[in-house]
Write a structure and sequence with these properties.
Distance between the termini of chain A: 33 Å
Oligomer: heterodimer
Strand content of chain A: 25-35%
Largest interface: A-B, 30 and 22 residues
Helix content of chain B: 10-25%
Order of helices and strands of chain A: EEEHEEHEEHHHEHEHEEEHH
Number of strands of chain A: 12
Number of helices of chain B: 7
CATH topology of chain A: Rossmann fold
Radius of gyration of chain A: 18 Å
Largest sheet of chain B: 11 strands, mixed
CATH superfamily of chain A: P-loop containing nucleotide triphosphate hydrolases
Number of strands of chain B: 21
Structural class of chain A: alpha/beta
Shape of chain B: globular
Number of domains of chain B: 2
Amino acid sequence: MLSIKNLQARVEEKEILKGINLEVKAGEVHAIMGPNGSGKSTLASILAGRETYEVTGGSITFEGKDLLELSPEDRAREGVFLAFQYPVEIPGVSTINFLKTAVNAIREYRGEEVMDAVSFLKMMKEKTKVVDIDETLLKRSLNEGFSGGEKKRNEIFQMAMLEPKLAVLDETDSGLDIDALKIVANGVNKLRSKNNAVIVVTHYQRLLDYIVPDYVHVLYNGRIVKSGTKELALELEAKGYDWIKNENTAV
Amino acid sequence: MNLKDLLLQEYKNFAPTASKALPIALREESMKQFSEWGIPTIKQEEWKYTNLKSILETPFKLNDSNGKAEGIQPYTIDAYKLVFVNGVWNTSLSDIKGIEAYATLKSISEAEPAVLAKYFNKFHPFQDGLQASNLAFAQHGIYLHVAKGKELPKPVLVYFLSDTTQGPILAQPRNLVVLEQNSSAKWIESFQSTGNDTSFTNIISEFFLHQDSRLEQYKFQQENDKAYHVGTSQVVHLEKSYSHSAVMTWSGALVRNNLNIHLGAEYCEAHLYGLYLGSSNRHIDNHTLVDHAMPNCYSNELYKGILDDQSTGVFNGKIWVQKDAQKTNAFQSNKNVLLSAKATMNTKPQLEIFADDVKCSHGATVGQLDEEALFFLRARGIPMAQARLLLMQAFSDDVLNKITIPELQEEITATIAQRLRP
């Protein structure tokens, strides 16, 4: 589904990604871990098409298409979804309002019929159950005055509505207490299927107790320095990131 | 002939035919002031950013009664309807049936001298040549007087149409609205034009609010791209009266909206809202004054603008809190979005506070559409143009939501959305 080859990127003059390789197949969950500043969020942002980063080398292929050639909106319409680390607040635009536009923009792109108001509301009602989000929140200005947990739940709710092929969760666990974390993880698990894939970007192992990954990659200093299965996350938790840092400075 | 001379000469023809309701001495005095002051120039502080020089040589025709009302784009709301064409009231097109149960409505030139003596031209904080000219020529306009305890069941909707198909047109309407104690009215001014020539509207509407009365007034500017407009609303509040004003501009070449509010007794409340959309070379100027003269009054002001291309915007918001006006609450906010590097916004909040126990706040912002919000919407599959539209609509909704007549709100919102579309 997703193939990242030797991806290099920088912001202004600073090199951040120094050759990332990653293969993700349908049905898989990959966790990307790493200390602060290792490039995790940069990778997530580049997948979604954020323009503050300049890709200086390598390639990203998604379902056979050159992802880097596509605008952010076309990536979303192809099925890439980014759950934002810092969900945006937009005064005057409600979740329902922009999701209706988004759902139909995606359907239009895929040559499907535009969804009428009734079917949209029905779908919305169903999906609110996935993350147990209060419908009144969805009628309010996007994320304005929402708690941290509500914002993250709203991201997963949007994911449920847009039914992406590839979901990238950028530190979705940050700022969540354990109850909110469980709700969010539970929501993601409900959406997992053999046809879609998830990349979980996280600093802590904690989230991976609830969203169990098939593969864990450790990103350090712009490169994936270790890959393994979920046990790697536990080892990291036990030994700390210094283990990775020391190992890599030694080389 | 330049505009000043044109008006001086036209006055000579006009004076003998002028309505006697207004003392001729007042007109003469006003014309004398006009001949001294002339058309405002950018040398005057109040006109620093708004330049009328491009119409000074236009051969305008005044109060042309041959204008045609065809081409008015009517609103669908149920209202008492009045039509002015080129500054002249076209009574045959008006529909005010039934209003007599609630109010007196007639031409300002038929108002009783005693009424004029009591209410007319009582509050004029910033006099200039245009206001002097309007006063000297005061003849065409509505005098609406809502009776004590009466609530107008429908809004009064006045269309001011400039028919420029036969050449440039100048109009100087003058309206007077009096709300008696405990009465209420909604007043809508819609400025439209036909033809592609220049028009210049120099209008003044005065509102006098008795105790416990309630006014809602709306002003919608939708003339052609050669329309010049200087409009002044003067609102005088007596005890516990309430006003709600919304001024929206999305057309015209140069538009200057003055809104001056005098809170002249205790426990008054005034809300001022403005929305302006600039594109091409449009120039939109909003000057407001809230004069807190007495204690315990409340005012709240929100003006928002979106400026594209080479358009310019001006906001000047004065709040005066006089020394007696203790316990004043006065709030003001002006927010602007510039869509183009060549668009300009001049914003100036001006608070002058002479009382010590008051709560006042003001803020002005000029910025771009939020990049992070745009990226977010695009990352959800919404194309750039539509994402921008969503953000602009959200921005303007704050003001559009202040139109309290639901059908009208819907209609104007749809018109604005059309304007915002690329």
